[in-house]
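Hey, quick one: can you model this chain's 3D structure?
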Amino acid sequence: MTLSPALSPTLVPPATPDALHPALWRASQLGRPRDAGLSSGFAALDAVLPGGGWPARALTELLLPHPGVGELRLLAPALVAVQGRGRCVLWFDPPGQPSPWALEALGIRTRRLVVVRPKEALKAAFGARVHERLPAADLLWALEQALASGQAGAVLAWLPARLGFDALRRLQLAAQAHDGPAFVLRHAEARLRPSVAPLRLLLASAGADVLRVHLLKRRGPPLAQPLELMLPPVLAPAAHARAQTGRGAMPPSPPSSPSPRASQPIFGAP
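Sure thing. Here's the predicted structure for all 270 residues.
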């Protein structure tokens, strides 16, 4: 008996992982998130991030040896883009008082910046090393609610390395309702601990206005070599020259003193 062409069985090729669900990808390829990433403002970094930028609906963990290595200059283009859409930026427990001069120089508008502090000054209560302090319960609650509300444009939270896995998991679940970037900044010691954040970066200074970026974790293959990104300068010309030469003496000041914005640190005293 022969079958007519209409009755002949047809072979259906197996579906690729990304055709089954956008959260699936081959380990040799970059993941393709449901939402396109928000450009970081650095082409070399966008090229190695899944989605071509900072992810939405997920936590991005930035690990630092200490505050001030260039993390805010790295994030500034994305924060400016968020504010340009009429959205606000929320900062949770930054390590110092934000400087309006320095933020405005980076393009960040302080009128669309909300700073949230915990009730208790736990930085002093748990020793001198800030990265070892315990997280404040009210801060974690406020952060989780802000992410779950989906109303914030971008969220930055400075959290200690001693953050419980369950607390980080709750934040990641809440971030799935947040359609913008969400950054958790912790001490570099946290790289030795497991994390549910889909994207983890280790940052370090590589010279004056140069930031070295190690991709510790991403949805895709590991990156063999770190990136070195040129950051916008924040030092006055004299301070920048001393940082490049490594000399102890300050070079002579130019006849016209620089604008206070050029030498203003991003954070002042807490």
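One thing worth noting: The chain has nine helices and eight strands.
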